[in-house]
Amino acid sequence: MPNYTECANLLVQGVVAKADPDIAGLGVIFAFTISAGLTLLAIGAAYFTGLVDAGLLGPVDRIIMHIPARAPQHPRIHVTLRKAIMACSDQQIVTGIAILAAGFHGLVTGHISVYHFHIVLYLAWMSSSVHLSALTLLKPFMQQHRGVLVWRSVGMLVLLVMMIIALVPTISNDWAVISLQNVDSNHLPQNTVFGVPAICFWGQLYDDGVNPDAILSYIVLFVSYLWKMGGLFPPITSFWTRYVRNPWDFCLEWPLSFAARKYGEQRGLMYMVPFWIWLAIYVETTAVLEVLDSFSAALWLSTLGFVYGILQIAVPRGLVQTAVPDLLAGESEWSLVSWYH
């Protein structure tokens, strides 16, 4: 395993990335992507056809998105679709944890490169994003079946902790760049930072600052998990409603009510102008809160997370394989044999 000085030299010189079809092969990437994509597609189908529990559809879903509540009229289809989504979401937890475990093993031994650890991270990111959307759909069922709720919560917490740890190397501003030297974009060098052992970035910034993408990833990760997992537990939901949402609504409604009352009594511009200004603020803020509370928001958030994960895999993969032609040949395999042993 390289020490700090060796890592610093490797960053400057670059390393030729070696093929690892067990992580970056077409078969592995397509298997993860298609699995997550089909899960997301099933959730979207359940939502847009109205085959979700009526309690999950808020004003935005019913009035703006025009989603009907058809689950009571088609109970068999509703239950079948829910079971299918539950099975797919379970698979997302298992595959996310499995790929991160493989990545951590390579990280500890110093055998996994920045390039391959980056792919591992965002394969797990896709699994995590899609599963959060499934949690929204399965919320009523899990609240009625505590055993299911407990083990899924444990699985999600394990995946969350692993994701937090996996993001640590990405904090460096030198993470996932082609080279620290000036290079011609038309003639990429084979020696890149992507080929450097990922362990070199564990707790090291190399005096080049913090990667803003990593900070954004942490924020999105924490907010997403707190938002979706918190909604599964009534005490957390009650706490949010009582100590956050209700006081916020009161702070918005009281000035509006005061200005309206004064304007009704005195009919003066002094109260009419503040009334209209505050009304605009109230309407926009309430609309944002209602959108965030809708099922469609969870679905769009998961879709964006899924697309973001694909881009974070496809762009670096294409870039590195352009620089290292041998990598393209070695990672064009469709085999999934190693994942079944």
UniProtKB/TrEMBL annotation:
Top-rank lineage group of the source organism: Eukaryota
Residue ranges of the TM segments: 23-48, 93-113, 119-138, 150-171, 215-236, 269-289, 295-315
InterPro entries assigned: Elsinochrome_Biosynth-Asso
The keyword Transmembrane is annotated on this UniProt entry: yes
Signal sequence, renumbered to the chain: none
Keywords: Membrane, Transmembrane, Transmembrane helix
PANTHER family found in the cross-reference section: INTEGRAL MEMBRANE PROTEIN
Full protein name: Uncharacterized protein
